[in-house]
Amino acid sequence: MNCQEFWKRLSKPPGTELDLGGEHRAHLAECVACSAHLARQQELAHGLRHLAESTRGLRAPGRVEGRLLRAFRAQNGATAGMQRNRWLVPLCWATAAVLLLATGLLLTGTRQPATPHSLPAVAEMASADPDGTTADAEGFIPLPDAERIAPNEDVNLVRMEVPRATMMALGFSVSDDRVAEPVEADVLLGSDGLARAVRFLD
Amino acid sequence: MMPGPLESDEEVLLRIRSGDEAAFLGLYRRRQGAIYRFILHLSASASVAEDITQEVFLALLRKECGYDPDRGTLSGYLFGIARKLVLRHLERGRADVPLETDAEDAPLPELAVVQDPLGDLTYRESIEGLRRAVATLPRRYREVVVLCDLEEVDYADAAVALGCPIGTVRSRLHRARALLLEKLNRERTPQGVKELKPARVLI
Question: Residues of B with CB below 8 A from A71's CB?
Fold first, then answer.
């Protein structure tokens, strides 16, 4: 076995415990250079193991763990909070859309009732007069140009605040100094989600 | 619940993502020592090692952390993140100690205590000499020695951490050990001896 073959046939890196076969031992016995080189390599591996052991106890200070835990909790708290509040976003949008729609319909109404209203029942409102400007017994006033509610139609009631000026659009008299004040109202939505009638609560 | 011994890295990571604090803590405690020492050996600064260890585990908390189990183990991934952060830090020129020169001012690791004072001194000197030799290796050789010889990371994980093929890890390690031997030999040979010249024979 020559020197090249000796190093090529070493099954393990020189740093590990070598189980040298007869051929290897024979080569080491006759080759001083390989013997010395192997010894140096084993000495280096031994030293590296000691260096590793001497630093094995080194760890990051405890404050790092504390900081990471705080970050972990903050992140997971924030995520959980976001998940809890996820339903709020569509709800807000839906509410805003309904408000906008209802207010728009109220403000763009073109018909002006001439007189203050009598109040027929909601059920009767479905078959109310073609003008649709009279309020039912529960105080609902059909919105101008809105479709009549069919007798068996599902309706929804939404309570909201609208500008008092909306009342003027439906023929109520409002004093100038109170025009800007909001007024609470029930808006009756048809099965298509469109506002059909309104009832002012003040 | 702490990570079980048979639980894969991917499973641990899933539990961490689902908000399992014990899983995160368990992973941190199991891996932080090796990561901290790796950074310490590369940066030669305890404060940098502390900061970057923290950043490595914070990176793990991010959804877009980029860990892909198909590309290697979590251990290799963490060493890789640590290495990149150290390199970024060094590139910014905030290194406390120049890497390619003797790191005389670097914080010394806690050395093991030996009972025999003379033996202890020799032991400390030899270990300290080796530590200096490792610290002054060029970075690409130092990182492979620290990973494979000091932290006993297997070649596959080292390849992931270093972003190179396993064959490159092997060849760098071979070259690194040769360089270490050269350095240690130079250190053992007193400089004055080299400068001695044969005396002129006058008679």
Answer: 58, 61
Domain ranges of chain A: 3-55, 89-200
Number of inter-chain CB pairs under 8 A, A vs B: 92
* Nearest Cα residue in chain A from B27: A65
| Residue A70, pLDDT score | 92
Pick the closest to residue B186 from B135, B137, B133 (CA basis): B133
Give tens-digit pLDDT for B90-121: 888 754 454 444 444 444 444 444 455 555 56
Contact assignment for A58 to B109 by CB distance below 8 Å: yes
CB contacts, 8 Å: B134 with chain A:
51
What ipTM goes with this model?
0.75
> Under 8 Å CB-to-CB from A60, ≥6 apart: which residues?
B32, B33, B35, B36, B49, B50, B53, B54
Which of A50, A51, A63 is the best residue to mutate to test the B interface, defined by the most B CB atoms within 10 Å of its own CB?
A: A51
Tell whether A159 is within 8 A of chain B (Cβ): no
CA nearest to A15 within chain B: B149
Which parts of chain A register pLDDT below 50? 110-130, 132
Q: Does A15 touch chain B (CB under 8 A)?
A: yes
What's this model's pTM, rounded to 2 decimal places?
A: 0.59
**CB of A39 within 8 A of CB of A15?**
no
Whether the CB of A52 is below 8 Å from some CB of chain B: the reply is yes
Where in chain B are the domains?
A: 9-187
Going by the DSSP 8-state scheme, the letter that residue A120 receives in this structure is: B
| SS3 label, residue A129 | coil
CATH number at B9-187:
1.10.1740.10
| Alpha-carbon span B67 to B64, nearest angstrom | 8
| Cα B99 from Cα B135, distance rounded (Å) | 7
